[in-house]
Each structure stands twice: as C-alpha cells, then as structure tokens.
Amino acid sequence: MLRFVTGNDGKLREARAALDDDVTQFSFDYTEIQSHDLGAIAAHGAREAYREVGEAVMVEDSGLFVDALDGFPGPYSAYVEDTLGIERIWRLTEPEADHAAAFRSLIAYCDGSAFGSAPTIRDGDPPVAIFEGRVDGQIVAPRGEGGFGYDPIFEYDDRTFAERDPDEKNEYSHRGRALDAFAEWYDGEGDADS
C-alpha cells in the first residue's frame, strides 16, 4: 500500500484512479518550503513525510502558471486561491492579450532508497524520484460545476476542467499525467524496490 500525503480528497480520488486503489491517505502537515521550484517543494515534503512514517510516501505539488502574469501564481497557487480567489486571477488575466497558462504537477516519491531509471532529485538525503505532468491551456471566465481549485477558469480543448467529469479530467489533467508517469514506473520498477 502506498501512502499519499494529502488532505485533498479530490487529489486522493485521482491517485486511486491512476494506481488502482492501491493508495491510502496519510495526513501529515509537512513544512512547505517557499520556493519558485515545484520540484524542491515536493522533494522536501516527501523527505519529511518519509522520515515521519518510515515507509514509502508520495507527495504531489502543483501550480497554475499564467504566461501574462510571468508564471504567477505558480507554486503559490493554493495560497493565492485561498486569499484572492480564482475569479481575481481571471480578472487579472482578462485585459491581457495572452491568456495562455499551464497546469504543472510533480509527484515526489521517497522510500529511503536510490532509484534506477526514475528522474531523481539527489540534492538531499534520501533521494526523491520525481514525475511531472503538464497541460497547456488558457485562462477563461469561470465555467462549470465540477472539479476543484482553478478548474473553472482553466480551459483545455474548448472546455474547462470544471466542465468535465472526473474520469475525463483525469485523462487530460496535469496531475493525471504525472500520476500516469509515476504509475508506469511504480508498477514496473519502483514496486519491485519496496
């Protein structure tokens, strides 16, 4: 069983869908370092959670990177959503000519060992395997009733993520892509190591 460090039920559902329900939620409030680098944030969280539980853990960090806002809110997306709200991000972007944006997600996996073929952050101990997912789209006025977070203002292929059912969203989402990359590695190589 893989421990996913999250308090977000939506993220947990997406992880269980990608990893065939072989995921349990682990509630642990790790220190979220302040950094412009999603990889550094996720790796730090995975190391700290691994030290707490002593078993393999997975942490996910993601952000919405808006081109017209020089990548803002990026790694600060959760804080910005909580303090400003998604409609203000739309209003900041609306007058701009460029509405391009990208959702990026990083899965950080730590089990206390080194990794074979997985992309790995080794600037700390223990090493952390990193898997990235990205989807490019644009910022639009809020639409749709589904999803969570920035889903109502992020449009991909003429529909927002909030206008898609969960399975369809997972097929296209940044987190779904990162989870798929992780699942492929974990089912093949990673699972054998733990």
Structural write-up:
The protein is of the alpha+beta class. It has a single domain, classed as Maf protein (Alpha-Beta Complex). It is 35% helix and 26% strand. Strands 1, 2, 3, 4, 5, 6, 7, 8 and 9 form a 9-stranded mixed sheet that branches. The N and C termini lie close together (10 Å). The model has no long low-confidence stretch (mean pLDDT 88). Belongs to the HAM1 NTPase family.
| Class of secondary structure makeup | alpha+beta
Distance between the termini: 10 Å
Q: How many DSSP-defined strands?
A: 9
Principal-axis shape: globular
Q: Which percent range fits the helix content?
A: 25-40%
Topology diagram in text:
Blueprint: E1 2-5, H1 9-18, E2 23-26, H2 38-53, E3 57-66, E4 73-74, H3 77-83, H4 86-93, E5 100-110, E6 120-121, E7 128-139, E8 154-156, E9 159-160, H5 166-172, H6 174-193
Parallel strand pairs: 1-2, 1-3
Antiparallel strand pairs: 3-4, 3-5, 5-7, 6-7, 7-8, 8-9
Offer a quick outline of the entry.
The protein is an alpha+beta fold and 194 residues long. The protein has one domain (2-193): Maf protein (Alpha-Beta Complex), CATH 3.90.950.10.
